[in-house]
Amino acid sequence: MSRRGRHGEEFIADINITPFTDVVLVLLIIFMVAAPYIPKNALTLSLPESKEASEIKNDGKKVYDIIVLNSSEVGLNESTMPVELLGKSIEAAASGATDEIFTVSAGAAASYQHVINVLDVLKKAGIKDVFLKTETAGSFK
Questions:
Q1: Model pTM score
Q2: Domains, in order of start, for the chain
């Protein structure tokens, strides 16, 4: 729909979406650049402190991080699942190989019983060597 003005110029009554498109594309580029820096496991965990903590040397072995979330859920690497499914997931992942490292962590306020339940599941799955994650006293990670 257009009208003619006083001096013969034509008025355009359409909406110009070019600036909007430019803004959306710039935001898309910003998010694409920032995406690798977003932590995959955004769960903040206050680990208990230990004065004699040591580093886990994986020597090319695959590390499975198990995080005790609550009485019914655990995190395995970057996925959460019920405790009942942890055993099946561990058996499928480990498949009897000896080149895997299993670490268990829980918040400082987590129930000791929940951690023991997870250790029981690991023992039933045939995992013998399990590391408990702690922070070194006085470290600020």
A1: 0.54
A2: 2-37 (no CATH), 49-136 (3.30.420.270)
